[in-house]
């Protein structure tokens, strides 16, 4: 009989072997038809303009974070709504305070301008190469 540590070791060996077999099988069986379109840069359905290593607009990350924060906060409303009748008036006041804080945060983000989704014109930087005398 194996001890608990032996069972864990066997489980780890089997799981590593399973992953290795899956990767090797995918490498062997996957089709390989490289083309120019396959290796081109593709970002969210828009053609790239200029160098592909330019930074994204920071507003994307801000809007995504604000969405996640408000989305998680709204999830707290569902369990409360299910048991609302049995909790009484105190829970209604607590949820009203919670929603007030949530609305204040939303108004603050809106007033700060973080919810505007303006697409600025891309600025393509031009790099000028200096030719030194040793390169001529």
List its traits.
136 residues; mainly alpha; flat; Methane Monooxygenase Hydroxylase, Chain G, domain 1; single chain; 5 helices
Q: How does the helix and strand content classify structurally? A: mainly alpha
General form:
flat
Rg value: 28 Å
How many runs of DSSP E, i.e. beta strands? 0
The level-1 CATH class of the domain at 57-117: Mainly Alpha
Series of H and E elements:
HHHHH
CATH architecture of the domain at 57-117: Up-down Bundle
Strand content: under 5%
CATH superfamily heading of the domain at 57-117: NADH:ubiquinone/plastoquinone oxidoreductase, chain 3
Indicate the CATH topology of the domain at 57-117.
Methane Monooxygenase Hydroxylase, Chain G, domain 1
Residue-averaged pLDDT:
80
> Largest beta sheet, briefly?
none
Residue runs with pLDDT of under 50 for 5 or more positions: none
- Provide a count of the helices: 5
Overview of the structural elements:
By secondary structure, this protein is mainly alpha-helical. It is 57% helix and 0% strand. It has helices at residues 4-29, 58-75, 77-82, 84-87, 89-112. 0% of the residues are buried.
């Amino acid at each position: 009989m194996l001890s608990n540590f032996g069972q864990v070791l066997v489980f780890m060996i089997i799981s590593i072997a399973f992953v290795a077999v899956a990767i090797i099988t995918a490498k062997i069986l996957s089709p390989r038809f490289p083309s120019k379109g396959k290796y081109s840069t593709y970002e969210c359905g828009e053609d790239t303009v200029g160098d592909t290593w330019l930074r994204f607009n920071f507003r994307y990350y801000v809007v995504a974070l604000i969405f996640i924060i408000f989305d998680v906060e709204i999830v707290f409303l569902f369990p409360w709504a299910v048991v609302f009748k049995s909790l009484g008036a105190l829970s209604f006041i607590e949820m009203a305070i919670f929603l007030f804080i949530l609305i204040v945060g939303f108004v603050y983000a809106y007033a700060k301008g973080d919810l505007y989704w303006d697409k600025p014109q891309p600025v393509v930087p031009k790099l000028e190469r200096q030719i030194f005398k040793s390169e001529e």
